[in-house]
Amino acid sequence: MAKSVKPHLYALLVGVDQYPYPVRPLKGCVNDIRAFSDYLERAEKDNYQLHIEKLENTAAKKGDIIRMFQEHLGKAGKQDVALFYYSGHGAQEAADTRIWTFEPDGKLEGLVCYDSIPGPQGPFNLLVDKELRYLINKLGPEDKRPHVVTIFDCCHSGDNTRNIFIGEEDREVRERQFRPADPRMGTILPVRDWKLFAFSKEISSEQVKNCKVISDVLPEGRHIQLSACASDESSYEVGGSGIFSKNLIQVLERSQGGISYYDLSSRLRTFIKGQYQQTPQVYEGGGGNIDLYKSFLNRSDTGKPLYGNVTYNPKEGWLFDMGVMHGISPQAKEITVFPHGKPREMFTAKIADVRPADTLLTLPETTDKAGVYQGFVDGFFSAPIRVFIQNQDLNLSAVMQLRKMIERKGRNVLLADKEAEADYTVNVYQERYVITRAGDPFRPLALPADDLGPESLDETFQNLRQISQWEYVRQLHNDGTNHLPQDSVKLEVTRVLADGREQVLTWQGDELMLEPEKGDYDGTQYGVNLRLSITNTSTFPVHVSLLFLSSTFGITGSLLANKVEKLAPKSAGEARGGQVQVLDGDDLVLPLGKAAWVFNMPQHTQYLKLIASRQPFNVNLLEQEPMADPARLAEAHRGKGDWGFGRKERNASADAWMTRTLALKLKNPQYNKIFAADLQEWMGSAAAPFVYGLYLDQQSPFGGKFRVKEGIELVEGKDALGRGLFFDIKLAVANWVSQKMRQRQFVQIIKKFPNRVRVVSEGDSWFQHPDPRVKDIIDHLFNQYAVYSLDSAGDRLRHYFQAGDYAEALALYRPEFLLLSGGGNDILGEQFKDYLRSDFATNIKQGQQPERFLQPTCFKEIDALGDIYQTLLHGVLTDYPTLHILVHGYDYIIPLESTREGWLGRYMIEKGIEHQADRKAVVDLIIDRFNTMLGRIAAKFPNVHYIDLRGTVRADLWWDEIHPNSQGFQDVAIKFQQKIDELRKPGPGKSRGK
Fold this sequence. Notes:
Layout (H helix, E strand, L loop, with lengths): L7 E8 L13 H15 L5 E8 L5 H10 L9 E7 L2 E5 L12 E5 L15 E2 H9 L9 E7 L19 E3 L12 E2 L15 H6 L12 E5 L8 E3 L2 E2 H12 L6 H12 L8 E5 L22 E6 L3 E4 L13 E6 L7 E8 L4 E4 L10 E4 L8 E6 L5 H14 L3 E3 L8 E6 L2 E6 L16 H22 L13 E8 L5 E4 L5 E4 L12 E10 L5 E8 L5 E2 L8 E3 L11 E3 L6 E4 L2 H5 L4 E11 L32 E2 L9 E11 L5 E3 H8 L4 H8 L17 E3 L13 H24 L5 E6 L13 H5 L4 E4 L7 H7 L1 H9 L3 E5 L2 H5 L27 H24 L4 E5 L15 H7 L5 H23 L5 E4 L18 H19 L10
Parallel strand pairs: 1-2, 1-3, 3-7, 4-9, 7-10, 20-21, 20-22, 26-35, 36-37, 38-39, 38-40, 40-41, 41-42
Antiparallel strand pairs: 4-5, 5-6, 8-11, 10-13, 11-12, 14-15, 14-19, 15-18, 16-17, 16-19, 17-18, 22-23, 24-25, 24-27, 27-31, 27-32, 28-29, 28-30, 28-33, 32-34, 33-35
Helix pairs in contact: 1-5, 5-6, 10-12, 11-12, 17-19
């Protein structure tokens, strides 16, 4: 077997110690890159084909660095690694704010190359962050770009945007921040000529000036950045090497390189903490945290860890790099610890103190302080949620499987015995696990899986776990004594209206109730545009983060460019200090989600989580991708999760912190209003069962017509519902819902039981009764057969003969049987009154000669229906000669003796037919004539089977004057079942039909 080809690792290592005057020299930068080169040669030679280039001191001119970046790193392909490592001074230069309009502090940050500062008068030419961004993006298109890693051991290396004063340090400790030897020079270099930017020949200053966001002209290529310090900190060197670089190599060697970028940064941060004023950072550009949890140099994908790192800090002792902000309860007593990669060697450590961003531990004295450890606490990253399982499908097996999984793996997912005690409900409904709020069964919170199989069970459980994690972040708060005052930071909101006007909004407590922009209800998207800013109003620096918690249980910190920003304190006499703009000042666009429309929500609620702390913290572990939007039930594809937002093109203790949960509520202008066009779309989708439960009254009035729920406005519009819209749009709604629900069940049945007998049914209210309390013929047959229903209450034989929907169903599903029920509405509907005579003989015995009450047109209509049946049957059997067709002529119905309800009895009473015996005889005559006609037509075709239902339904088993009740329909369904089973039974001369 041929050996697999090792990927290439192209490394460009730049170190500068001997800068020309007036830049102060350094001592450890060249040592850093040489030590890192030795590490690669020693540790990675078996994993990669190594190509290492080093630029030291005078060789590290800006032009040479750019050339080697393009020529050397540009050789890396999709499966390779391109690594850029810089050790030297970091500096800032003034930005031309007429061009760089989006730079909040008016500065650009960059690397001091050997020739960047040739003298006190310039010209100055840093390799700034925007140029590095340009170079990274030039390494290839997204589908061909290598895995890119940048490592910076210099000041301003976090994101190169801020600076702070550094106090006196030991003489052996050097700061890698540009401080000129010539005191006449400032630390901020002046604005440079546009021609000096590396991209000036491709990108004009006007393009940058006029762009909405920087990524429009300078896209951020996907890469991982490891840096020695935060944006406003300095990087230090001591004893001939950088603090960051030295520890980086040590951690890589101890973990044998098998460590994720996130863990690597965390361990470095924990070790350095308290010794020097620098906080190592990790950042993923352009990837959305896809690579953050991969192993160093992309050796393997380790996945997002559910554990933290335990490291010995010389000043503080053993530290676990997770705290209250990461889900560790202040009441936790102990943590499980094990050496990296050796989970079998677990031992228990005591928790001494749970702090905002880390936890202080007590480990046995014999623990190796140079070792690399991992740890975990059961139940962190989640808040307890109580879940009730509602068995609407009466599927005990599905319920027990989910219950066992929750009991075995649930952690903070707890089972509730009563729905009233639960936070969430899992409904076993329509062959799906559907997660909803407790007591709200028809508004799914996430797109449910397609069935009740093992994968769907696991997906449902993982969704519950994700909701638990989301709830932890939503509920996260500090109730300890180190509480940062709520007014330490201020979140300000401005609404941008469609006409461009701006409106300052005021929080009502911790929420905003927002009226979306007005529009049409026919599909125009509603929404609001907001601009938000966070301001430090305290006298001390504050670290802030703003998380977005979507309605689909996603959490992201991407509202702020660096997820966590450090805001400067306010100065004496000033009302406020540092400020950061959400989305770099761009609009936060909040659309009214489609789920609010489909599932009739009064409002669409999402949350902002503001976190502020005097100490640095990390929110990466709080983030999670959203679950799939339940609105996709009304669409043809599943898709992935949506975030639910977009963008237009006082003194406190040193570890004080606070949070604030803010609700953004968008009113739904379509609440309790439903349109025919929407119904047509949604009833033809998987959302039909939920729309059915939300909009239609399941306790219909006596008399057969279905009723839309109280308070729902049904807007007719044009004939958008198509078939079934004859006399009552509300009845048409019920037909659509029931029909689509049945058709979905049919698909599920044949998928699960492919050999089950297939039946297509086309009929009226005997096949599709509009009241859900009545189990009609097809409902009963569903227990035995896979029935594809085209039935509609109130439908007429003429209509479905003309529409021909059954032809498409027959071609698609190739059933053994076609069931027809039609003609009753053509004769006994509202037109029945037109068949009654006003002049009739009254001297005849009651119940005799009922034809005297009827117009000749009644019998002509029956004959006409016979012609339709004959044409329909002939056409179907011509295309499908082995298909069996079952028809019926109804049972003797019982007209009501009232003028207040029904129509058959009422019409006859209004015509003067006083005796119930006469009225019953009239209806019996029509039923007999209809049955005789249908039997005669059926006899002409060998595969058409007429079922005589007369005398089947007892007098006490009628729901109303034209429909049996559930038990009556069961007696009728038995006759259909007997005929189907008889026809399928092999015998002499019998065909099984296909």
